[in-house]
Amino acid sequence: MLQLLNAEFYKLRKSKSFFICTILTVVFVFIMYGAFLLADNIQKGKVENGTGGVIVSINQEELQATSASIWDTIHIMDILQEIFSGDVMAMIIGTFISIFVISEFMSGMLKNVVGKGSSRASIYLSKLFAAMFAAVLMAAVGIIATLICGRIFIGASAFAGDFWKNLMIYTALQLVMTTTVASIFVLIGELFRNLAAGISIGIGVAVFPTLLLNFIDMKFADSSILPSQLWPFTRMFGCPFEGFTVSYAAETLLVAAFWLVLTAGLGIWHFSRTDIK
Questions:
Q1: Fewer CB in a 10 Å sphere around the end CB: N or C, the chain?
Q2: What is the pLDDT of residues 186-199, one digit of tens each?
């Protein structure tokens, strides 16, 4: 198992797609801050309203130039929530894992690994652990980039109060869910074994069930049960960035553990019973 893990991490270090997807994560953070910077310049009258598709208004009325800065109303945790609450982060991770898992089926490399006598379960788990590590690393790089840009654009005041406490809890919950999301994408890659199908189905799984579950939530409006919160992607998108409770953290860990065990178990079972061409 240790040799398989070493081989997987070696592949990860040599993977161009991993570095490209990590860079894309940082670029996405820059785009977020760039949009706010443009909005700040529009608010101050330095740039015409509507430039770059960014329109700043107050109560749907045309904005008058003001010396107030938009950075005074934005917190780093708001930006972090925007990064994790959208589909972009999930799609970047899903795209990388699809390439990382499926490319070995397509190249025949995985057949050679199986032929060396290692158990199917250990092969699948080594790939899963490497994919989970890569997903967590990409998310962590995005968080670090957000903090650095926050210090540059917002200033030291952005780290005042309970910021670090909230950041640690929020980051821990998001990274736990990120490992579960990675496990789902690994399962999808193992099931379909086709790059185009794996990426497209992975994106669909990240987006459409969430939309459907949010619609189903309306049927449970008078209940304390929200079906959408039982789906890892939705829970990742809706994670609060302050006011954490022990019950919410425990529920998050239970949801993550359930889907992680389920997807890993299904992946091992299917991988052990199907031929590798």
A1: C
A2: 999 999 888 888 88
